[in-house]
Specification:
Elements: H1 12-18, H2 26-43, H3 45-55, H4 60-83, H5 87-111, H6 124-127
Helix pairs in contact: 2-4, 3-4, 4-5
């Protein structure tokens, strides 16, 4: 039986519905991947600064603040989507970050011919394979 609702107060059913975290919906799996990518960038900010520097789009003074702020935003938005907390706002922020990323790659594709650095988290064993 459902708890009675008080005007202006969320009912317990709504709160229980928001905390379902083991729903293997594709958006939750993608959000978990975003959390992993954010954690990797947080753990290795120097590598992320080098990747941002490779785009040649940002002034040197803004590279470090971007490299600190963006991974935390990515982690918080990914966790918000996984746990179902403010899903529309988190999805909007992730879509905005994707739009900026796609724009940066597009600008680099049309403005130069050398390879484009992409921030894909890899493990140390993949970066330095044993011979």
């Amino acid at each position: 039986m459902e708890a009675p609702r008080v005007q202006g107060e969320p009912c317990a059913f709504v709160l229980k519905k928001r905390i379902r975290i083991f729903n293997p919906h594709p958006s939750r799996v993608d959000s978990a991947g975003r959390c992993y990518a954010g954690i990797h960038k947080i753990a290795h900010p120097g590598e992320f600064v080098d990747i941002l520097r490779g785009y040649n789009l940002f002034p040197a003074a803004t590279l470090h603040p971007i490299a600190v702020f963006v991974p935390w935003l990515e982690l918080v938005c990914g966790a918000a989507l996984v746990f179902g907390i403010f899903p529309r706002g988190a999805a909007a922020m992730i879509n905005l970050m994707l739009l900026v990323f796609i724009t940066a790659i597009s600008i680099n594709c049309y403005s130069r011919t050398e390879s484009i650095p992409i921030a894909i988290p890899i493990t140390r064993s993949e970066a330095h394979p044993r011979h």
